[in-house]
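Batch manifest line 118
LIGAND: protoporphyrin IX containing FE
JOB: complex structure
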Amino acid sequence: MDLVHHLLVLLHLLGMAAVVGSAVFVARGRVTPALLWGARAQVLTGLLLVGLLEAGDEPVNHPKVGVKLVVAIAVAACAEIAAGRSRRGAGEQVTLVHAAGALAVLNTAVAVLWTSSS
Ligand code: HEM
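JOB STATUS: finished
ARTIFACT:
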């Protein structure tokens, strides 16, 4: 169970790196596969982590993961809408791609700075 937990945290961090890296440093308005799949992976790995923590003895900060879920869905929505528009030939989606990156940075800040558990 510990190994699964650690692997999920690893995937969660790689997903964060994919979204923030693509949106903020690489993509410049383009929707990369890393951005899209990273955004999807964050929702999935985050929910799996919560399930795993709930199943074990670890306390889960419910308000914190609730906020993270809402923000992560907004990140995924920005990425999906941007991908859909560029598939239909609408060109670069600078605002949506940057919004996805900024929201992912916000979620990273929530993950690291919101420390009290409840
Ligand atoms: C864009 C979306 C997200 C980003 C950028 C993100 C970022 C992070 C980061 C950087 C950590 C490590 C923090 C640390 O260990 O100090 C973390 C941990 C965690 N995240 Fe997320 N997260 C996202 C979405 C989610 C979602 C949707 C959920 C659940 C609903 C979630 C649940 C968790 C949990 C439970 C941990 C603790 C893992 C552990 O140490 O056992 N995250 N997240």
